[in-house]
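Sequence only, no structure available. Ideas?
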Amino acid sequence: MSWTRQIIHRLRELQMHSRSWLYAGRVAFALALLAMMLLVKEGHHLDNPVDIAGYDVQNGQLVAEHGGPPPSGLLNVISILLPYLDRWMVFGGLVYVSILLRQWGVTRKLVVPSWVAAISVAAWAVATDIAHQLGVMQMTELGEPLSLSAYYGKLLLMVIAPICISGLLHYYHRCGTLDRYTMRTFLAPLLFCFVAFASLWLIMDLLDNLKDFQEAEAPMGRVLLFYLGVLPFIFVSVMPASLLLSVLYTLTRMSRANEIIAMLGAGRSVLQVLGPLLVVSAAVSVLSMSANYHWAPRAEGKKEAVLRGLEGRQKDSIMQSSIMYRDPSSGRTWFIASMPFSLRDGRLRGVQVREVDAHSQLTRVIHADSATWFPGGGWRYFDGKEVLYKDGQPVTLRDFPRNPAGWQGIDISNFTETPWSMISHDLTPDFMGVPEIISYLRARPEDHPSRLAPFYAHLHHRFALPWQSFALALVAAPLGIAYSRRGAVGGIAGSIFIFFALLFLNNLCLNLGKGGHLPSWLSPWVPHLLFCSLGLVLLHFRSQNKDLPRLSQLFRQASTRIVRPRNRQAA
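Reply:
I predicted one. Tokens follow.
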């Protein structure tokens, strides 16, 4: 580990040396702004057009592909701003890293740069998502009708997430000395527990899937990208346990050092002592809700699809295999060997389309090795053959022509089927985000309530699950405050028991909601309401300086007995 110590030592030397530079942060920020002004003057957006779904850039103007409607004013603005935002993320990121290196530990000088960084990240993330998601027909890449209200909620959470992080730093700067100390004492074990649990999750998953990566001869870069895409799911999964253990460790340590008693003796209440911990827990829950709204379930689903693709020796992911679909309006029958998780990253493999006339006579068959669908409507088939029939007999067999661009295939724009229409009847809500679930519910209102109950349950579960962290923190906080060694051990044991009880109750209530035994809007919230109520009761006992109730006291039956006085005369 000598090389790591040398790196840390060099970084510390660089940090101490950089603090002697006068106005280094302001100069770096001014240089970044100057570079952006030069890019604007040179017309950077004309030389580096962005990829907007369903549109092509010609002479600096957006042109709809496959005869779609003209672009809206919002997309025109995004096409101009996004290239500059991409460069600003590079220049501004370097400036912010230099400021962090120079001003680390000086909170007062980090507040304003952090707010600028948060607003920049939010603007870049929203612009990028609009460019990739808002197609010409306002459909997703699988042809699913887009719910604009759910999509706007997704954009709102993309803004809230970075602002929440800078807001924590601003809160730390404005709070008092004792709150800063409590927050610093809490954040260190929280970060350590999260890194430890996330590393353990990654190691266990890598051991399970290492054979698949080796057999598929996946390069190291693909494996790293694979696990980077799963980070939102990891964050939502391991953060409750990390928060629970960090709360217990922080309060137990402060209790044994009599620091909590000193704070209470200084006139602070228990709620004021626990304030920084509850604020951080609420911020973590908001971040978890932002991740669980769309990215965490989609990351889990994509992980499974990529692994199926590796098992099938395909370079694309496999969301579903062996699909057969017949469109009742057109009479076309589709056979698809495998469908990727995202058409932006892959193609449909092994596609066969059979067309019939009004008398159910076969008229045309298309065989293609792969195919893709465009959000604006239309299919493109690659590397295959087209067979024409007359009176049910084949009369013409021809290969796909070679396009001037170099690919061999055909474009068909009059097929109304979409990938989503082919797989919608087999979709499950486990790997769907809130926008996908709402779009599904709006597109299939005629389905039986028993079929829609799991989707409604998972819809509310996406909002309820992130607050599991706050519920655990609210219960663990009064249990972690102890004035003796025995009390600390009992609080830790009780909190761990409560953690597993919450996990069990959470899965139980979710399944009850999916089965229709409980209202779908209530079942995901029942565990959190119960444990938050328990946390408030325990917090009330602790704030009143009363002993916490024990299970033996709750189940003990009160009995009265008459004690006969001793017969002293007989004695």
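The longest helix spans residues 177-215.
Hope that gets you unstuck.
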